[in-house]
């Protein structure tokens, strides 16, 4: 609890993992993210998953339901390679739930390839495994609002400077180019992903490839 009061996600090496996660008895559940965040590992997915994991852990740490029933931890490969070997783990990131009693079952490993690693999906999985419901609170992102305000200011300034000659507003080529830009943006894969929210990876039912 003292560690959690200082940091929402507790960093663990091999010794701490064996003492506080693996060794019985325990009266708390532990969510562990096995990852490789060091730059030399070149794991961009690990960094993205870590950001979502931090959002989830902070939502739990600062919620009114926060208690000593659940803790969020992380084991980095460069700090706990022996843990990876002990669990026969050869990929990262991986999320696992260690229950208070007994060994983790198959469902205690989060299916990241099928579901993705969004904080909301992780929260649903944790609720299924621990009966602890976490409402995800994301920090506000004002970048879109700022960009829109700058664009409106730029257009307004341009119209003000050209207030005596506004014939360019009736330029069909300009409007056509703007319309094409909007069409390309709306039909792009980025917009499709934003609207549909597909899983991070798909599995081919014919050959099982991910």
TrEMBL record:
Cellular component terms per the entry's GO annotation: oligosaccharyltransferase complex
- Provide one Gene Ontology biological process annotation: magnesium ion transport
What superkingdom heads the lineage?
Answer: Eukaryota
Q: Which UniProt keywords apply?
A: Disulfide bond, Endoplasmic reticulum, Magnesium, Membrane, Signal, Transmembrane, Transmembrane helix, Transport
State the annotated membrane topology for this chain. Multi-pass membrane protein
Q: Where would you find the membrane-spanning parts of this chain?
A: 142-161, 173-192
Q: Mind telling me what this protein is named?
A: Tumor suppressor candidate 3
Natural source organism: Callipepla squamata (Scaled quail)
């Amino acid at each position: 609890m003292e560690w959690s009061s200082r940091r929402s996600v507790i960093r663990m090496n091999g010794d701490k993992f064996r003492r506080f996660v693996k060794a019985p008895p325990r009266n708390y559940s532990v969510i562990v993210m096995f990852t490789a965040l060091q730059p030399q590992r070149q794991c961009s997915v690990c960094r993205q998953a870590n950001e979502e994991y931090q959002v989830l852990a902070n939502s739990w740490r600062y919620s009114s339901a926060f208690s000593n029933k659940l803790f969020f931890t992380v084991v980095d490969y460069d700090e706990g390679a022996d843990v990876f070997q002990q669990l026969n783990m050869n990929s990262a990131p991986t999320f696992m739930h260690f229950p208070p009693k007994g060994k983790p079952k198959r469902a205690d490993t989060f299916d990241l390839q099928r579901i993705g690693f969004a904080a909301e999906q992780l929260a649903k999985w944790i609720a299924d495994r621990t009966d602890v419901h976490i409402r995800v609170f994301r920090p506000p992102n004002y970048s879109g609002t700022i960009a829109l305000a700058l664009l409106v200011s730029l257009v307004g300034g341009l119209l003000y400077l050209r207030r005596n000659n506004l014939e360019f507003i009736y330029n069909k080529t300009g409007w056509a180019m703007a319309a094409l830009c909007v069409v390309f943006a709306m039909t792009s894969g980025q917009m499709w992903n934003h609207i549909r929210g597909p899983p991070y990876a798909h599995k081919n039912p014919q050959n099982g490839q991910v």
